[in-house]
C-alpha cells in the first residue's frame, strides 16, 4: 500500500462550491465509520486511505464520493463529500459540486460505473489482512502495481473488474462493488472475516 499522498492528479472543474445534500450521504457516512472502525480505511498520519462512493440515481452517471485529504473517516459531515457530475478520461478532468477536492480516485470510480449499470456503490479500502490472503481466497488481482489516480491504474482495474465484484489492486488496496451501499460494504466485511480465518 504505497499511496502516500492523496492529492488528485486530474483537474477539477467546480460547477458549484456547495456541498451535496443527497439523502444517501447519511448511509455513506455510516459505512465510512465502519470502514474506519474495521481498519479498512486506515489513517496514515496526514490523511486516510481509501474512498467510498455511491451512484445518486440508478442508470445515471452522477455519484457522491468522499473528498480528498480527509484526516479520518470516523466522523464525517456532508461537506466531506463531493458530487461528481461527469468525467473526461482523455482530458483527465472531472466536473464536480462541493467545497472540497474530490477523491484522487474519482475518475477510477467513474470508469467502473460506466460499463456496470447494475453497480450503484464502489468502496475502495486498504487492508493488509485481505491483501495478504488474496491468493488463498482467489480474489482477482491486477497484473501490475501502478501509481494511484493514474490512467495506468485505471487500465489495470478495467481489465479485471468487468466480471468481478471484489478485486485487488496490486500492492495498493481492494475494490468492493455492490448494487447498493449495503452490498458493497458487507462484501468487504465478508472478505475481511474470511481473511482472519484459517483453512477457508
Spatially, the strands of the biggest sheet line up as 1-5-4-3-2-6-8-7
State the CATH topology: L-fuculose-1-phosphate Aldolase
Query: What is the rounded distance between the termini?
Result: 24 Å
Poorly predicted regions are 1-6
Cα radius of gyration in angstroms? 15 Å
Order of helices and strands: EHEEEEHEHHEEH
How helix-rich are the residues, as a percent range? 25-40%
Determine the oligomeric state from the structure: single chain
What is the total tally of β strands?
Answer: 8
Query: What would the average pLDDT be, to the nearest integer?
Result: 93
What coarse outline follows from CA principal-axis ratios? globular
Q: In the CATH hierarchy, what is the superfamily?
A: Class II aldolase/adducin N-terminal domain
Structure commentary:
There is one protein chain. This protein is α+β, with helices and mostly antiparallel strands and 200 residues long. It is built from five helices and eight strands; from the N terminus they run βαββββαβααββα. It has an eight-stranded mixed β-sheet with strand order 1-5-4-3-2-6-8-7, sandwiched between helices. Helix 2 (106-113) packs parallel to helix 4 (151-161). The longest helix is centred in the C-terminal third of the chain and has 15 residues, at 181-195. Mean pLDDT is 93; it is low at 1-6.
Topology:
Blueprint: E1 11-16, H1 25-37, E2 51-55, E3 63-66, E4 81-88, E5 93-97, H2 106-113, E6 121-125, H3 128-132, H4 151-161, E7 166-169, E8 173-178, H5 181-195
Parallel strand pairs: 1-5
Antiparallel strand pairs: 2-3, 2-6, 3-4, 4-5, 6-8, 7-8
Helix pairs in contact: 2-4
Amino acid at each position: 500500500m504505497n499511496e502516500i499522498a492523496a492529492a488528485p492528479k486530474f483537474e477539477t472543474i467546480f460547477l458549484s462550491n456547495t456541498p451535496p445534500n443527497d439523502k444517501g450521504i447519511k448511509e455513506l457516512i455510516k459505512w465510512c465509520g465502519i470502514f474506519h472502525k474495521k481498519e479498512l480505511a486506515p489513517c496514515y498520519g496526514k490523511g486516510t486511505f481509501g474512498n467510498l462512493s455511491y451512484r445518486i440515481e440508478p442508470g445515471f452517471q452522477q455519484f457522491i464520493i468522499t473528498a480528498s485529504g480527509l484526516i479520518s473517516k470516523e466522523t464525517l459531515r456532508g461537506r466531506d463529500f463531493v458530487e461528481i457530475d461527469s468525467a473526461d478520461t482523455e482530458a483527465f478532468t472531472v466536473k464536480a459540486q462541493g467545497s472540497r477536492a474530490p477523491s484522487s480516485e474519482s475518475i477510477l470510480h467513474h470508469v467502473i460505473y460506466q460499463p456496470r449499470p447494475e453497480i450503484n456503490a464502489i468502496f475502495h479500502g486498504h487492508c493488509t489482512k485481505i491483501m495478504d490472503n488474496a491468493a488463498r481466497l482467489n480474489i482477482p488481482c491486477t497484473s501490475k502495481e501502478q501509481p494511484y489516480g493514474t490512467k495506468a491504474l485505471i487500465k489495470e482495474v478495467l481489465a479485471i473488474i468487468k466480471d468481478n465484484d471484489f478485486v485487488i489492486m496490486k500492492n495498493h488496496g481492494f475494490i468492493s462493488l455492490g448494487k447498493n451501499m449495503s452490498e458493497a460494504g458487507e462484501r468487504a466485511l465478508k472478505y475481511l472475516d474470511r481473511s482472519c480465518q484459517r483453512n477457508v
